[in-house]
Amino acid sequence: LIQSVPTRSNSTYYMLERFIELSDNISLALLECPKAPMLTASKLQLATEIIQVMNPIEAATKEICGEQYVTGSKIIPLI
């Protein structure tokens, strides 16, 4: 799994995305640990919706961070 890192702007997005991708496998693994907290279906759905909202932000951040020096002409079209 990917962990969220405060200094990396898209790390929470990548963490949630990977968690959703692996949620079936994670659930199976957690069945072996009876005291482990399990996410409900509604919380998994919420995480999926958060990813959909964050997707354009991740794409814009990735585009802006790809350059060493960002110019205003690149930022305005992204908005």
From TrEMBL:
Superkingdom in the source lineage: Eukaryota
Protein name as annotated: Zinc finger BED domain-containing protein 4
